[in-house]
Each structure stands twice: as C-alpha cells, then as structure tokens.
Amino acid sequence: MSDNNDKGIMLKAIMVAAPILLCMGLLPLLSFYIEKMEEDGRAQIVDYIAIAQAAMEVKFDAADLNGWQTGYAFDIIRSVEGASRDDAISRSEFLRSADNFRRDIQTLRGMTLSADQRSQLDSVQKDFNAFMEMDRDIIAMYRSGSPIARDKASKLVMGEEIQIFTHISQNTNALAVSITLDLMKKVAQSNSYGIVARWMMLVMWIIASAMAILLVRLLHKWLGQMRSLMQKLESLAGTDELTQLPNRRTWDLQIEMMLATAKRYGQPVAVALFDLDHFKQFNDTYGHPEGDRLLREASLLIKSRMRQSDLFARFGGEEFVLALMDCDLSQAVARIESLRRNLPDGQTFSVGVTLWMNGERIHNTLARADKALYQAKDGGRDRVVSIAPPAPGEPQA
Q: Taking the model in full, what pTM does it have?
C-alpha cells in the first residue's frame, strides 16, 4: 500500500512539474516569435489570457480537491478516529476546495469558449455534481455506524469515487490544454509587438510560478498526509482498537525491554492476568455493544490507576495482562486488590499474579500467572490469587 501511495505522489508531482518545465523551455522560443507579432488583436489576446488563467484555476482546484479528498478518504477506509467529526481538518478543507472548484467553473462558464470546450466544461460540471452527491452518500453511510454501510462506503471511495474523479482530472487537463493551445494560436496569429509580447511573457511566468507554488504545496500536503497516515497505521498496528490499550504485539515488544531494565537494576517485576467474571453471560444478557462498552470503561479505569512504568495490555476477549515494575508479590496483590473496587456495572474480575524470575522466559511467567488465574476462578471468582515463583533450582510446577 505504501509503495502504491509513493508512486501516486510521484506521478502527481510529475504531472504538475511537467508544465513548469514546458513553460520554462518555451519562454526563449516564444520570446523570439512574440516580438514579431502585430499590434492588432491585442484585446483578443488579453481576453484569451483571462480564459487561460480561469482554466488553470479550475485545473489547480481539481488537484487541490483531489489532495484533500485523498486525506479524508484514507480516514474512511481505515475507520480511524476523526473521520466522522464535522471539524475534521481534511473534511473541512475538502469542502472548501469543492466550493472553490464550483465557483471557478461558473467563472469559466461565463467566458467565451468553443463548442468543444464548453462540452468538456459541461462534462466536468456533471461529473463534479455526481462526485459531490456520491460523497454525501459516502459520508452518510460512514457516519451511520453500521459496519455494512461503512464497508460499502469504503468500496465506493476506492471504486466509483476514484473513477469519477479520474474523469474530472482528465477533462480539466484536456480543457486547460485546449484553451492554452487556442491562446498560443491567437498569439501566433497576432501581429502585436510590445504590449502583447510583455503580456504573453508575463502569462507564461505566471503559469510557471503558479505551477511551481502548486507543486510545493501539493508535495508538502501529500508528504504530511503520508507521515500522518503512517503514524496512524503504526499506532493502529500496536493498539487494541476497542480499548486503545497496547495489544499482544506491543506487549511482546515492550515486556522484553521492561525485563531487560529490571534485570539491569535488580528490580522485581510482578505479572498478572486479569479475566472479567461472567463476561459471556453479560454479553448474552445485554448484547455485544454493551459488552464492548464494559470492556472500554473497565480498561480505562484500571489504566488510570497505573504508574508510568507499568505495562497494561489486552490479550483478547475479556483477558488483560499487567506488568508492575519494581513491585514484589505482596505489593502487587495489594495494588491489584485496590483496583477491584468501583468497576462499572458492579463488574468483578479474577486475577492470577506471580513474579518474574531473573533470566526466566516470559511465557513461563505467564503460564504461572495463568495457573493462579484458574485457581481464582475455581475458588469462586472475584478474587486475587498469587503464586510465588519456584526457588532457584526447583523445577517449574
């Protein structure tokens, strides 16, 4: 996915950079011929310059609109936080770009165009209206909260919406090229020398400068979006989506660093496995949405009582794991007992806790904590059971 995004960025950058190189390359050649143009037709040249500038504005708007649409489209297809908020930056900037695009199309429509150019403009207008109508449907489906609707919204974003916008980009490019070629023909036909020459040179410099500014702006925007996207993806890859706690993958990475630090400074590390009592029964009684709410609230409450040095993660389902740095077994039991109060909905949990032995593999520590957890469940649940690690030289139980 990242490779495709990089290729897309480079392709768009090349598409914007090409007119800059073309303008800069044509300037010396045009300056030679423009000096030979007659004075007649100056007003017509000025009119065509205005039309060409208006066409370039529409082309710039299309590129700008595509840039912001890409940002919030990534949010939608990954269902990340912020995509459903009205004040999301990408979304608000997209709507601003859409208003600019609509305004500049109307401005260009009021100018003198050939039949083919007006047909192209009508096609752009039609595609844009269809694009905005589909965009409203996509946002409505995404904000509905329905997984089926969100999946359909993602498919529309990656399918029909991209196809429509590709057609818009092609037509705006074709229209800008057509009008620019007409402008160059009018200039070639003109016999104007001084004023027309200065106007034409100025227009070419304006186009080249504007395209250069747009290139810098688009690259800055795209690179910023890519950095933001990679940060979000990296965060999502290591975070449990429901509770926003570290997931099993992050636990495996961080616990090794934590144990290395404990070994270096000779500090004890307590490891505990949590299991919400009768969670399946709660789900069956109140439904999965309420079960998800209970998991979120319980994990948030427990996390709020953790120290910065502790590691609290979700292992899956209703099971959580906790590592307490610089904490012996009795201290760990006391701290975990304090967590058992004031859980939401009168919820209780069973806990098995043990100590990590210096040099021990973490999966052996977890197996011992799991054994203590089963003893807590067999003992009636809603309790903390601890198992001390075996003495040095003593085999694992």
A: 0.45
